[in-house]
Design a protein that fits this description.
The complex is a heterodimer of chains A (213) and B (304).
Chain A lengths: L1 H20 L3 H20 L8 H28 L11 H18 L14 H18 L3 H22 L4 H30 L13
Helix pairs in contact in A: 1-2, 1-5, 2-3, 2-6, 3-6, 3-7, 4-5, 5-6, 6-7
Chain B lengths: L1 H29 L8 H11 L10 H19 L15 H22 L3 H32 L4 H10 L8 H18 L18 H4 L6 H25 L7 H25 L8 H20 L1
The chains are: A mainly alpha (213), B mainly alpha (304).
């Protein structure tokens, strides 16, 4: 069981690297959705697979995060016609190398933090921090608004993962709150992307700073 | 002692066979019959019978390189275990020795290529150095992760413990899988197989290894080809030892399992070459960086 959880954790980290290194937005959306599924599995496994209230709740949350939110982002991609992040502020190879640095930093930072006993692996904290940093990095280092929304979703995934570890029994209240926030944020972002695109014919956020008078 | 010697003997005899297994697999995918299974041996025998031609611009480096390459790869073979079969001359820290005997081999290939003074060879040398600088990180960090996992510092001990752990109850299964994935990329890159380099083409502007050895001929070329086959065997047996832990208490089935693993690896490489196109040259560093990332991840996972 423990080694299976470890392998899921490693998959999460690899998906983060895929997010850092991929230029196709479709790949990124796919990775975010896959991450949500893995986190859902991680939330369920310690409880056993017997159907219960938790099961239903986690299933619903995972459904929203793995299907609905990526679906919204895909719709935004279709409407704006943006399929690829062409000129990121930092190149993809550089991003992956920086990702190794971030990973090392999160393992260092997480050293004193211990997961409470409850069937979770000890890698959870560094992986959570790394996922959060990846989300932040995507928001900072990418030009397109859609990638930044994706970074936001990755951060949300990590916060949810943190909740899974630390509020083992009654976590879904917290999660529902977080999820509602993100849902609203993606909604607002989707509308914003649409409007930016309609007004200015593209969604490069750094061009917004040219609007000074 | 008899089994390590048997392993080295088998490696010396059978390593060109692995290359022909790869070629047969590719031929099968291409719908061809393929070259005879003994073709690499015939090639080497043919080359050994021929004379060599040396350009007047070359120096002793060019003449020494093939012998040094073969010698260093044989030195590396002496510390290579195959699963539970120990290496011929294991010692503490031999994993660094292995990495840098292969490094010495590469250094002389590159020097000889530069020594010819041909721009074409120099181009190949430049690429080889660029890519192997990245592959070396992946190899060394991966070995460090494996060493850290088992708290031993010799390839023989690492491979014995990885092999003895058994397929199901892997102590650090995730770590070993990561290292194995990273080593697969290193194996493909270091042996100039397809996603990185195409071993079949000559005189094409995007290749690496074949360009560098273009000016060698006769016995020199035979040495280089044979050393390349041995290098595949060495990296392959490392990969097999880490990735396919099968437990037999007896050395004979262990050796058999290791050999079957090696031939399975050759078939896998053949399949990879058949279903993949070579990467664009600018994408190759990205692939190698990803291999390095896998190794680093394994290391962090162990050291946490």
């Amino acid at each position: 069981m423990q080694s299976f959880l470890d392998i899921l954790m490693i998959l999460l980290v690899l998906l983060n690297f895929r997010l850092l290194g991929a230029s196709q937005l479709g790949t990124c959306v796919h990775s975010v959705a896959f991450q949500a599924v893995i986190i859902g599995l991680l939330a369920l496994l310690p409880h056993g697979l017997a159907p219960s209230w938790t099961w239903l709740m986690v299933g619903a949350v995972t459904l929203v995060k793995a299907v609905v939110l990526p679906g919204l982002v895909r719709r935004a991609m279709r409407e704006t016609g943006v399929m690829q992040e062409l000129e990121p502020f930092l190149g993809y190879t550089v991003s992956v190398i920086l990702g190794v640095g971030l990973l090392a930093a999160s393992f260092l930072v997480a050293r004193p933090l211990r997961v409470p006993a409850g069937g979770m692996t000890q890698v959870l904290v560094p992986v959570t921090i790394f996922t959060m940093l990846t989300g932040l990095y995507l928001i900072i280092a990418r030009r397109k608004a859609i990638t930044q929304v994706l970074g936001f979703l990755v951060m949300e995934n990590s916060i949810y993962l943190f909740g899974v570890a630390f509020a083992v029994e009654e976590s879904w209240l917290v999660q529902a709150g977080v999820l509602l926030d993100v849902f609203a944020a993606v909604f607002v972002m989707g509308i914003m992307i649409y409007h930016i695109n309609r007004e200015f014919d593209n969604i490069d956020t750094d061009r917004l700073s040219d609007l000074k008078d | 002692m008899i089994f390590p010697m048997l392993h080295v003997f088998l490696a010396l005899i059978a390593s060109p066979l692995l290359l022909s297994v790869i070629n047969r697999t590719k031929a099968f995918f291409g719908g061809r019959t393929g070259a005879p299974i003994l073709q690499p041996y015939l090639d080497i025998a043919k080359l050994l019978r021929k004379g060599t031609v040396y350009s007047r611009t070359t120096t002793w480096i060019f003449r020494a390189a093939p012998s040094v390459e073969l010698a260093s790869v044989m030195a590396a073979l002496a510390v290579t275990p195959l699963g539970a079969i120990p290496a011929l001359l294991p010692f503490q820290g031999d994993l660094v020795f292995l990495a840098y005997s292969l490094g010495l081999m590469r250094f002389f290939t590159v020097s000889a290529a530069l020594d010819t003074g041909s721009a074409f060879c120099g181009m190949g040398a430049s690429r080889e150095v660029q890519f192997s600088a990245l592959a070396e990180v992946a190899l060394l960090v991966g070995l460090a992760a494996a060493a850290c996992l088992f708290r031993v510092f010799s390839l023989t001990d690492i491979c014995r413990q990885a092999w003895a752990a058994g397929p199901v109850s892997w102590e650090g299964g995730g770590t070993l899988l990561l290292v194995a994935a990273s080593f697969l990329v290193v194996l493909l890159a270091e042996n100039s197989r397809i996603p990185v380099d195409d071993p079949n083409t000559h005189l094409e502007l995007t290749m690496i290894h074949e360009v560098m050895i273009l000016d060698h001929g006769g016995p020199d070329l035979a040495f280089i080809e044979y050393a390349a086959a041995l290098k595949f065997w060495i990296l392959g047996s490392l990969l097999v030892s880490l990735a396919l832990p099968l437990r037999f208490a007896d050395p004979l089935p262990d050796l058999a399992a290791g050999l079957i693993g090696l031939f399975f690896l050759a078939v896998t490489v053949g399949v990879i070459e058949s279903v993949m196109a070579r990467l664009k040259l600018v994408r190759v560093p990205q692939l190698l960086v990803v291999a390095g990332v896998l190794s680093f991840l394994a290391l962090f996972d162990v050291m946490r």
